[in-house]
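Take a minute with the sequence and fold tokens given here and flag any structure token that looks odd. Thanks in advance.
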Amino acid sequence: MVDERFDDAMKEAKEADELIKSGQYTEEELAKQKPFLGVPISTKDCIAVKGMLHTSGLYERRNHRASEDADAMALMRKAGAIPFALTNVSEVCMWWESNNTVHGRSRNPYDTNRIVGGSSGGEGCIQAAAASPFGLGSDIGGSIRMPSFFNGIFGHKPSKFIVSNMGQFPLPNCEEQHSFLGIGPMVRHAEDLKPMLKIIAGEKASQLKLDEPVDVQKLKFFYQETDGGGRLVSPVDSDLIDAIHRIVDHLQTKLKVPVEQVQLPAFRQSASLWFANMKDDTGHAFDYQLGNCKRTINTKLELVKWIFGASKHTLIALLTALLDKSQPQHGSSKYHYLVKKRNDLRDEMQQLLGDNGVLIYPTHPTVAPYHNEPIIRPINFSYTGIVNVLGFPATNIPLGLGSEGVPLGVQVIANFNQDRLCLAVAEELEKAFGGWKRPEVRI
């Protein structure tokens, strides 16, 4: 947790009590208009909460406070929820370990020597530690699903363009990038995903048909164990492959549904597809975001300063800026090739999934790494990142603890606006495998 508003939250909680006692609304009316009346909510330090810090882990913004709520938080407030805590992120939310020069490093509640993920890492941690009832995260390359996986909770990235991104920092540069970014719920219990999503989707909730019942036994199930051998991507841990096999066995023996193994070859290029499709024609790259979206930093100079302890940026942020520059640039022939490859994969998956199919796929190739280990495995985010550039909804589902004592899990992917299928599968697998497990911290 990097900021709190406990006093204000207590005042708002008393106001909620008084509203109930006043009899102004019936119980049914309150349930409809304010379904989360009086319930605390937390969110990450890049989603604006009026009066709270809004730094996104950037030193230049260390004293910046939000003047108004982000759209998603405003909708949760309207539903009665009370924001009380802000949680840690990676610098400018573009890395999968939550560590920055403003607030420092967050540690995994199952093993404090390991990462919490990023960029919604602090949120994943506070949920796993049962210090918040539910929270909001955001996800442009896996920033909800990776922390949810590493911390053993449920996290949902909605279909593209369903939840408003307004009120985040930094915001995407173009419409295409907006389609990759999604705000979604992070919770310990699967049943909380749907009511939260229904609220933050606002007027677009009707597109998801969340109240339409889902018969899990009538779904088409597909699974893929690995990305097929992506370059510089770690092999999938045997614990995680075993977990997928347990799911397949449960579906086949308990639910009596067929499950088909597939292998989508384009998944091998997940990282390349993500990097290329993230490019836009504004001329602004990650080094511009590190300049607080006001200027472009001199990355090489900042690296020299970092060596002497004089830079206010993290090493990984500077390395990410260099990596970003090395990728195919917008408009190049390789860019167009990879965009077409993304589009072809999207079409292939749409035909595969239809309106009643889900794909079971690893959220990440390894369990929660040790601190700083992502630096030598930077491309492992590709298991989640590919879903963002495709625009599909996906939910991380915890599957208990593995042989190393840290959480296992998978992501379930559905077609556009079929989020309810992911959520229904999450509830089914929670019943089968127990969902979130209380941490027993190893220090």
In short: The chain has a mean pLDDT of 97.
